[in-house]
Amino acid sequence: MKREPDFSRLRKVLLREGEPDVVPFYELFADQEVISKVLGRPYQGLKDRIEFQCQLGYDFVCLFLNIPLPMHGQASTSDTAELSKG
Question: Are the CB atoms for 57 and 4 separated by under 8 Å?
Fold first, then answer.
């Protein structure tokens, strides 16, 4: 059975208006490789991210804006990711 997206579930929880019919389903981030695998094609950008989240029945589509802000002093560390992207 395909899960239908329904933002009102998440809204209900966030506003503490009661218990939703099921636990809201959302995620803040998914790697492009995961999106590509689910969609069965190379990741192309924002439209694919939205399609991925809708296809999986997410109740909320999480998008980020790239706002260029000046950086004053930068810290760096070694990459400790198991599947490093360099």
Answer: yes
Q: Which amino acid is at 42?
A: P
Per-residue DSSP letter, 42: -
pTM, full prediction: 0.65
Cα–Cα distance between 67 and 86 in angstroms, integer? 23
DSSP conformation class of 64: -
pLDDT, mean of each 10-residue run, the chain (86 residues):
81 91 85 94 93 88 80 77 78
Alpha-helix runs per DSSP H in the chain: 7-14, 32-39, 46-55
Give per-residue pLDDT as tens, 40-64: 999 999 899 999 988 888 888 877 7
DSSP type of residue 57: T
* Residue 25 structure tokens: 């389903």
